[in-house]
Amino acid sequence: MPKGCFLLLVLCPAGWYAFFSLQHAALLPDAHEETRLSIPLRFLDYPEYDGDLMRAEVKTETGEKWLLRYRFKNRDEKKRWQDVLGPGSVCRISGVKKTPGEPKNDNLFNYRLHLASQRIFFLFDAEAMSAGSCGHGRKTFPEWLKGIRKKGMETVKGHFSERAAPLVNALLFGDQGELDERTAGSYRKLGISHLLAISGLHVTILAGLFYFCLLRIGMVRERVRNLLLVLLPCYALLAGGSPSVVRAVMMAWTVLFLSRWRGQIHPMDSLGLSLILFLLANPFAVYHAGFQLSYLVTAGLLLSKGIILREEGFLRQNFAVSAVAFLVSLPAVLYHFYQVSLLSLWMNLLFVPLYTAALIPLSLFSLLLLLVLPGAGSLFAGLFSRLVEWTNATAEFFADRDRFVLVLGRPEGFVLICYFLSAVLFFGILEKRGDWKRMAFCLLFPVFVHLFAVKYSFVGEVTMIDVGQGDSILIRLPLQKAVYLIDTGGVLRFPKEEWAERKNAYDPGEYIVVPYLKSKGIGTIDKLILTHGDADHIGSARTILEELRVKEVVVGKTANRKPMEKELMEAARRKGVKVTEAFQGTGWEKGGIPFYVLFPKPLAESGNDSSIVLFARIGGKNWLFTGDLGTEGENRLLTDYPKLKADVLKVGHHGSETSSSERFLKAIGAKTALISAGENNRYGHPHQVVLDRLRKRRMAIYRTDVQGAITYRFFLGKGYFRTWKGDGGKTALDQAP
Question: Which residues form a coiled coil (predicted)?
Answer without folding.
Answer: none
